Structure formats: C-alpha cells, structure tokens
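SAMPLE LOG
Freezer: B-3
Tube label: C17
Construct: single chain, 325 aa
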Amino acid sequence: MTTGDTLLRRLPRVRAGGLLPILVILGVLLILVAIRQPGFLAPGSLMSFLGRSAPIILLAAGQYFVIVSGEFDLSVGSLVTAQVVIAARLIDGEPDRTWPVVALVIVSSAFVGLVNGVITTWLRVPSFITTLGMLLILVGAVYFWSDGSPKGELSEQFRRFGRRAFEDVPVFGRVPYALLVVLVLALLAIVLMRSDFGRTLVAVGDSPRAAELSGVRVARTRTIAFVLSGVAAGVAAILLGGYSGVSFQAGSGLEFSAITAVVLGGVALGGGRGAVLGAMLGALTLELLFALMNFSGVSGTVRPAVQGAIILLAVAVSAARSPSD
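STRUCTURE (predicted):
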C-alpha cells in the first residue's frame, strides 16, 4: 500500500448529512397531498407521478456528482432541450433510427460533460462561468440548427421510454418504464458512491488540496463528475422527450430545479458533504411540493420563487451548522 493510498483512506468518507430530515419532509408532503387529493396514493396514480418525476430525479443525481466535488453544472437544462430537438430531427419519425440516435444522445451528452470538465479543471475557468457559457452555446446552436422551430418527429419506439409502462402488474397496476430506468441508474449511482471513486469525489469536494497531497488526481475526478452529469442529462432528455414531445422549452429551468433538489436533499453547495440518495429524494420532494401547490390552486409562476427560497434556506442552515473558522 502506498503512502497516497494510506492518506486517501484518511480523507473524509461519504457523509450522508442525514437522510432523516428529507424523509420527514417527504412524508409530511405525502400526507398533505393525500388529504388534498385523496386518490393520489392509489397505486396507479402514485406510479404515474413517479414516472413523471424520473427526469428531474436523474438530473439531481447527475448534479450531485458535480456539486459534491465542489463545482456547478448550469448547462444540463439546455442540454436536455438540445438533445430532444436534435433527436426529433435526426429520427424524423423513422423507427429504424431510434437506437442509433439514443446512443448518439448519450455519447454526445457525455462529450458535453467532458468539455465542461476539461475547461473547468484544466483551463481553470470557474465552473459557474464554464457551464453558463455552455448553456448559451447549446441554446444558440440548437436555435440556429433548427431555424428557430423544432423539426422532425420522435418515433414511437423512442417515446415509449418516457410514456409507456408495464400494465397489469400485481399490487402496483401500472409501472412506467421511466421509473424502472431511474431505479436501475439510482442503484448504480449508490454503488458508485460507495466505491473508492465515491469517497475520492467527496474528499475532493471537502478539501481539494488535501486530496491532491494524498495523490488524488483532482482534475480527473472532477472531470468524471461532469461527464456523469452529462450522461444523466442525456438519459433525462430521452425520458422527457418521450413523455412530453418536442419543444424548445423541454429543459427550461431544469438546471435550477436540479440544484434545488440537491440542496433540499442535504448536499452542501460547497461540496464534500451529502448523499446521492438524498439528492434524488430531494428531487422527489420538490416534485411533490409542486404537486401540492397545483392541487391547492397555487399558480405555477411562483415556482422559481419557491426554488430560490429553498436554496437560500438550505445554504443558511448549512452555514449555521458548519464550524466557524
């Protein structure tokens, strides 16, 4: 065992930050929604809700990897939009093009994440600026390429990922494909964060200098985090495009929803603390909160204000809990 390996083992391991608070909030919201909409907890209704929530859960998981490493990714919403619009134009209703385009969406999304990571870590451009620039590039490029309006059509084979389900499942009734995709990827994310890479990622977010002195390749670790965020956005685009179709608004604002979900799940914005399961539960809680607002007749226009308040409150609580210098 090398000295670097020994030091790395002494670096902070994954600190869940406590899943109890987000579980309590989630439980309270479920009760409130059930009171407001008695049929919501019926298996069919609940499964449909979970299927609709799949894209933001995936985006939150992807954003988690970046945030826990001490960075930000503001490009995921525009990446979702770009991939939906591009997929529709490339497929143009032809079923035979579905799987090649699905592969292209995932690979190109990973490439966007790689570019974000390289610019941030190797060129030392702050991730906020890097990903904000990528957001604008993607929006401008997709408008230019499509002449200002979406063209083409997603095939039924493509759309089934987001809107089809296994029918007549005992107990649950209807289980959306999107939910199964989320469960599989969530399990992979949890296993990844329990591996040496996961502990290294948290260590990098907690103290990049200490991690570097321990032999960790900080730049490479953070770049991988951006790639994972890109892949999550690509899969989310496939599910969202399948569910809602082609639109220039497909991913609008999702980057902020993902960040809100992450901090709601107990992940520190400065990095080094939080669990990927907490981030995903945060996304589910956020969607449940919006559902409660909708059932209560609250206008959807206040969503950004709610998200902003959650971020500010979460950061304030995190700062209050942190030991003073």
